[in-house]
Design brief:
Number of domains: 2
Number of helices: 12
Structural class: alpha/beta
CATH class of the largest domain: Alpha Beta
Strand order of the largest sheet: 8-7-6-5-4-14-13-10-9
Distance between the termini: 40 Å
CATH superfamily of the largest domain: Glycosidases
Helix content: 10-25%
Largest sheet: 9 strands, parallel
Low-confidence stretches: 1-21
Radius of gyration: 26 Å
Amino acid sequence: MDRAIAAVSLALALLPVGGLAEEPVLVPFPTAWEEPVGGPADLSFLLEAPAGRDGFVTVRDGHLAEADGSRLRIWGINLSAAAGLPRKEDAPRLAAILARHGLNGVRFHYFDRPAPGGILDASRDDTHALDPEQLERFDFLVAELKKRGIYTNINLNVARRYREGDGVRDHELLGFAKGVTHVDERLVELQKEYARQLLTHRNPYTGAEYRSEPAVAIVEMVNENSIVESWFSGRLLGKNQTKDPGTWTDIPASYERELSARYQAWLRERLSDEDLARLRKEAGVGEEEAVPRLAPEGFDEASNLRFQSEASFYIELEDRFFQQMGSFLRDDLGVRALLVGSSDHNHSRSGYPLLSSTAKLDVVDGHVYWQHPHYLEGRLPSGQSRFEIPNTPMVADPLHSTVVQLARSAVEGRPYTVSEVNHPFPHAYSAEGIPILAAYGALQDWDGIFWYTFEHARPDEWEPRARGHFDLRPDPVKMAQLAAGALLFLRGDVAKAKGLHLRSYSPEEVRESIRLPHELWPFFTPGFDHALPLRRRTRIRGFESGSSDSVSPSEPGPIVSDTDQLSWHTAQEMGLVTVETERSEATVGFPRVSPASLRHLELALDNDFAAVTLGALDDRPLSRSARLLLTAGARVANSGMRWNDDRTGLVEWGGAPTVIEPVRGRVVLRGLAPATHVEVTALDSGGRRTGVPRPARHVGNGWEIQLGPTATVWYVVDVGR
């Protein structure tokens, strides 16, 4: 590819709220990964290698900890499907790329599928066996990650589709079998079989079985899988007759009949004769007839007895599954890694029923996407699915931000990780996601964040364009921001909030939260101030009794953290987040919302929307640092990409190369204790210097840097004294 492609003006219609006088000019800036290591922005110094060098990851004082008791935070990424199974010649390069961006955790996701996209043997008519070649690729990559201080998170049940030889009833109608994986004996048996095969396998490159490998920090049982959610989402009705129905599907009729029979037995066991008679009367059935299970449209009209009884049934089923699998993994297999049940992921509804079960395990987990694509029928000319998104900036809606949504799930006394989060491509404001969550994740004192996802394809198949909504690898802005985020979160530049607000829910409140009105999302806690997670920490105290700490409602104006390091400003459907710490500063959003002048970072940008971060690349404060990392990101697209008229979907997906809207304008670095000269060097997408350093101009009490004309998203600033 010719790296000297001339700047091109593309009519991408990436307009902010309020519009622009003219379309932004986007220029080619594809990601390139030819060199495995090095570069002035190499963040691998933040990682302690090898991973698990002192023993197994544990829990101390409610947080992840190293074997010696020191605090462990994970700034991680997902590797999905074939991306986690690279050729052996590519694995060292992939591991080095992740390390130099400051990533110390990899979640292996979506690979319980047939080869070549997964780890199962594709030559069989069942899913009983692992593919030896794929397993060796996995082994080698895990060993390469371990060498560099990168921990592993292994997912067990994610995308397994069953085959004729598995002995699974109606296997072709199950899709991913969400919900029924918790209750069907054959499906539970197969999950245990898979876990045994994978976790007792000895990795020849590390010498340890995965169940006793200290570099394996976490094992997750199921992904985004809850029978309670299946119930309130209308997916336990038994009406699916479509083969290979996809991810989110109703269950087949045979599983509905089995579930209903279990419910009848549960009612007879748990309810008094009087209550059971009342239930039958309400349902309009005779004494010997079955009580119909509720569909979502019947929730509001159901009596407290009927609704609470059925909710209890599903919660108990779910809790029993997690306890059973936890016992199998810990006691039968001897797994030393920490255990996660499933993630709280559906924030338009209550997550407390699921959390009341998963919080009994080692680690609590959450997932959130800012405006996840809603898929429509049909495909674009390029073959991608048609979709729609609101395409509005998160900075303009702080009370429903990814920060606030994720904050509802953390439980006191348990580590909290976020194993999936993203601003999916081609969102016009995706540059806001990483720096905001890195800063507020540190404020909330969370234990891990795994961005979804680095890639789905193997390195030999990488292209300089976005092929889907979720891959960060082809997005130069997000990749640069991962390095900046490692400073904010992994190094802990942002301090944890001083205050802690605790909430408790009684079992009845947990069940009743399912049918609370949508207006209360994402916390589904009447009276809760949704601005609170932007000011101080919040956790769930427990699920045994209902009580919460009192808190004063937020005052009008910017939402300021109780550390005074983070501020969230909103005005006229726009917003701006500022970060001001000793070693890192940032402004993210619409600069005209608030004066963009921090202690060390003063901006005068030409862009309507941008995310700019400044971080010390040594352990010194910004004022005395010898080298700084400056990132400046705005819009990212594929060449030739075109939005529809209302900019909520694409009519052309576009192709290579990736193009960016360069951030242009003036930056003044202030308060650099006595500097004799300051030089700035633009970096290419792989983090290498491009051209010669440019001297910054000394102005007043600072040093002025002009962003541009070189197309880039990050710079190193060398300070001489």
